[in-house]
Write a structure and sequence with these properties.
The complex is a heterodimer of chains A (178) and B (578). Chain A is an alpha+beta fold. Helix content of chain A is 24%, strand content 31%. Among the domains of chain B are: 129 residues, Immunoglobulin-like (Sandwich), CATH 2.60.40.420; 115 residues, Immunoglobulin-like (Sandwich), CATH 2.60.40. Chain B is globular. The chains are: A alpha+beta (178), B mainly beta (578).
Amino acid sequence: MNPILKNALFPALALAFSSGLYAAGEHGGHHGSSAVGEPGKAEDVSRTIDVTMMDNYYEPESISVKPGETIRFRVKNEGALVHEFNIGTAEMHEAHQEEMQMMVEHGVIKGDRIDEEMMNMDMGNGHSMKHDDPNSVLMEPGETREIIWTFTEATDLEFACNVPGHYQSGMYGDIDFE
Amino acid sequence: MKKTILIAMLAGFASLAANAGEYDISVDRVQIDTGDFVKEGIGYNGASPGPILRFKEGEEVTINVTNNLDEMTSIHWHGLILPYQQDGVPGISFPGIKPGETFTYNFPIVQAGTYWFHSHSGFQEPNGAYGAIVIEPEGREPFRYDREYVVQLTDKHPHSGDRIMRNLKMSADYYNRQQQTVGDFIEESGDKGFMATLMDRMMWGDMRMMKADIEDVQGFTALINGKGPEQNWTGLFEKGDRVRLRFINSSAMTYFDVRIPGLEMTVVQADGNNVQPVNVDEFRIGVAETYDVIVRIRDEQAYTIFAESMGRSGFARGTLAPAEGMVADVPEMRDAPLLTMADMAGHRDHGGMDHGSMDHGSMDHGSMDQGDMAGMDHGDMNRDDMAGMDHSGMNHGGDSALPEDPFYAKGSGLIPTASNGGKFLSYADLKAQKPLYEDREPTREIEMRLTGNMERYEWSINGVKYEDADPVVLQYGERVRFKFVNETMMTHPMHLHGMWSILDVGADKWNPIKHVISVAPATTVYMETEVDAPGEWAFHCHLSYHAASGMFRKIVVEGDPDSTVADGKQGGQQGGES
């Protein structure tokens, strides 16, 4: 069906096995910093913000929050492509983009769908390309997911889609602290 | 010189008129100053390049073109989907525009993106008759930017187009300054051994080609928006801006490798159509192609836009800067690539052969080429590996140091690499952002072998020059798969008028739609076309002197939306080329 992609997959995968990139760069480690905030509890939610994902931008394109506030983000992908909603600093997004690039190269993200099997595949050393961080959701077209997040202190945060090229073409927004 | 500057009504103006814009263009004799030389040429509204025409999707445009030359002219709206009578190709769409006359084009704008326009008469286009078209979409674009610039490249030559054509016909290597010398031979003999070098040279001589023959026409000054490297076209920005650059290659003959040292570029459009964004450090733009990229500039320094010609015989240079007069380093050009054995793997000399009457279905290219090369080291010369898209037999495990790109022959000397070791855009990276057509099986395949005789500077399709060829007949409603087999050692940018070229990058429904498909030496590239535009259209190599010497066809689309030609059925008449 797709000879180029299939054939290109294997040498790239072999590379990933040996590079140990995922061992070091597992999605964890990004959200330990308290400045970014932390996963919130449903009972603390003060309000819900609806975020719509389009190709390739968000509506709205900026969000205002208060320090200490816990918000439920109800995120809907109304685009035709896979998108991410990820809360972090510009640096965190940049680091995450490298991982997402590998997910595309390995066929985990295929334009409009996510290959769950490939994503959860054991890559030989106990690691996988699972995308299961609490500050982020990765979604196929039509999906709606929620993130409950507590913003601890005022800092430079963005919500962003780190699917390769999407951030660079403008799919990010500022989180402003009131 | 008569210099009538008519009003070029641009976007702001047109929007007042809501959905009907009227534009006036005069075709004039102009002076073109490249910084290296001043040359009389042809321009629009008194200048070359002409104005940037800014249209709005959904607008009905009326364009009055007044010919102030003493010869026939025409304007072709490159990449625009329109009724065939408006396409501007003399002898196919209309008779052309006589001296002193005004021809009024009228058509709806049914697309958005970056395109261009140029004369389709004689060599007026290489002589300066070109301009840019920017179409604002009806809806929101899938990306955002703070400002935008057209970056229109060309390869302005001190000789007129007619003179270049005459010289090429006289001697195909007239403008090839990078021929290898006796000195090169001695040096290469030291590296490779005398016999191997001698054999190599004899073979290349036998093919009437030279390893360095990547650009037929050298000696040009490359321009950005009409300005030579010293004149340094500059686009201003403010720190933090996201800048959209609309690259258009309006060259007669020259491919460019484009980079902006220090900035990553995100490719968001190819040939006017949105693609899923790709981050790159460098890209190659074929003749007549367009690429839109977005750069985000976070600091207050100047950046050089550097576009080296593919054969490294010249470069265009411009600058992005926070203030006028600021400049950045201009890199040295890299070494010129040399064609390799892989690039000649498809080579066949079509000098005296009548290919029209041959049965190509039974031709065995593999064994034929092998026969020609007895005694040589064939290493990776297996043609099956080089059939462009069919990589099922390729071994991706080995040779990991060599650059690879499925749109070049394996081992080709032309495979580009980014100067900073980073990402170089490949056709294989291009995926439609939003597919225009439903993906479906093609109803038939038409093979187009790209052929030529270098010595006589004759270029052809399936071995037949334009003047000797029957039109290719297509039926409205069919989906035709074109198989381009490049049997020459030049890269050909093939341009179909009036209908989209769906480039097969192996991405099924995400295959991108383009108006120019570049076919590298010794490769086979497939594109599909939904035959959805009745009438008569041009199809040709966009290298000016290849098109003029025969690599050109007329395409006739029979039937229309009201006729009963069903999908998948062909009329009785086949194209002369299929």
